[in-house]
Amino acid sequence: MKKRLRKKLHRGEFRELGFSFDAKFKADTEMQVVEAWLQELASLLNSHSLEMGGGWNSNVCGGFITRERGSVTPEEQDIVRKWFDEHGQNLESVTVGELKDAWYGW
């Protein structure tokens, strides 16, 4: 495959990596606490030039974290994982997936 096509299709050296996560809140968690948690998560991601797509409600928050251009590094994944551990007082469980291809890793 030619380089131009690999770039257009995000293949080979142009592959972009990201990771998924699922956070389940404790049953008695108030919506205001969930919203504050999401604001802090958004601030963390913004400070590292990361983006998240996904959804949330009062019970669960889940999504995929990536970068607009390029890949998430293992170090950035560890930063997010540690943040989840430090801010997990209202969480029942958190699952952080492995780095995978953001375009074709499904």
Automatic annotation (TrEMBL):
It comes from Butyricimonas faecihominis. This is DUF469 family protein. GO terms for cellular component: cytosol.
